[in-house]
């Protein structure tokens, strides 16, 4: 990832570069995940941030059965002005350790500003293991307590026909019908490395997530 200052369009300046395989980003794979630009409050400071997934693990090109990836199974929040890593989630070695986060995350992270105050409140994450996570941001906390959450649903399995993958972030709509309130989380699976594959039983899904209201 590269960040440029284009205040002067005829004299752009490189602000920072985030490179996978080194330092804080040792687990960053191929950078497919489009960064989501938003704000969060870390401690007493509101930070401009980029939120993105750990990227694509190229071993997924040839995997017939679901298995853990060696890179890409992370979510990163970085300072959008400096590139400093502020927070991360993964199966190990992260601020939020989620044992189920074993598969690479090439999709964008779908971020919801529930309070409409400019600060991100919820993150929805899908991976190449056919899983959906919801993570909740607690503004004003330090990095170790900044985010909670976990696995919301799994749509994959251990057979070849069930090896569903998500490459694109879910779309979310807030629904209120009578006394029913929920986020409609909509996503579709596929196999970008082999788009003509007819073995995997792919689907579109909608999950009603009422948990954010209770």
Strand order of the largest sheet: 3-4-5-6-7
Structural class computed from helices and strand pairing: mainly beta
End-to-end gap: 37 Å
Assign an overall shape. globular
Mean pLDDT: 96
Query: Whole-number radius of gyration?
Result: 18 Å
- Major sheet: size, sense and barrel closure? 5 strands, mixed
Number of helices: 0
What does this structure look like?
The chain is mainly β and 214 residues long. It has no helices and 14 strands. The strands form 4 sheets. The protein has a 5-stranded mixed β-sheet, with no helix packed on it. A 4-stranded antiparallel β-sheet has the order 8-9-10-11, with no helix packed on it. A hairpin with a 5-residue loop joins strand 5 and strand 6 (85-90). The mean pLDDT is 96.
Give a quick set of tags describing it.
214 residues, 4-stranded antiparallel beta sheet, mainly beta, single chain, 14 strands, 5-stranded mixed beta sheet
In short:
The protein has strands spanning 2-5, 13-17, 36-42, 45-53, 74-79, 85-90, 96-97, 110-112, 122-126, 131-137, 147-154, 171-177, 180-188, 204-209. It is mainly beta and 214 residues long.
Record the SSE blueprint.
Elements: E1 2-5, E2 13-17, E3 36-42, E4 45-53, E5 74-79, E6 85-90, E7 96-97, E8 110-112, E9 122-126, E10 131-137, E11 147-154, E12 171-177, E13 180-188, E14 204-209
Parallel strand pairs: 6-7
Antiparallel strand pairs: 1-2, 3-4, 4-5, 5-6, 8-9, 9-10, 10-11, 12-13, 13-14
């Amino acid at each position: 990832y590269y960040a440029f200052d284009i205040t002067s369009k005829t004299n752009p300046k490189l602000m920072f570069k985030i490179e996978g395989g080194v330092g804080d980003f040792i687990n960053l794979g191929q950078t497919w995940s489009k960064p989501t630009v938003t704000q969060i409050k870390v401690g007493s400071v509101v930070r401009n941030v980029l939120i993105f997934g750990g990227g694509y693990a190229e071993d997924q090109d040839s995997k017939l059965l679901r298995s853990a990836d060696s890179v890409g199974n992370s979510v990163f929040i970085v300072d959008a002005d400096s590139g400093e890593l502020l927070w991360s989630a993964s199966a190990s070695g992260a601020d939020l350790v989620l044992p189920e986060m074993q598969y690479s995350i090439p999709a964008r992270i779908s971020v919801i500003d529930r309070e409409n105050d400019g600060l991100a409140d919820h993150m929805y994450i899908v991976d190449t293991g056919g899983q959906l996570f919801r993570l909740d941001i607690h503004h004003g906390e330090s990095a170790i307590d900044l985010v909670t959450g976990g696995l919301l649903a799994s749509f994959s399995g251990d057979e070849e026909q069930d090896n569903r993958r998500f490459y694109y972030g879910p779309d979310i709509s807030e629904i209120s019908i009578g006394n029913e309130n929920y986020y409609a989380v909509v996503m579709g699976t596929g196999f970008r490395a082999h788009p003509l594959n007819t073995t995997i039983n792919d689907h579109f899904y909608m999950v009603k997530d009422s948990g954010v209201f209770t």
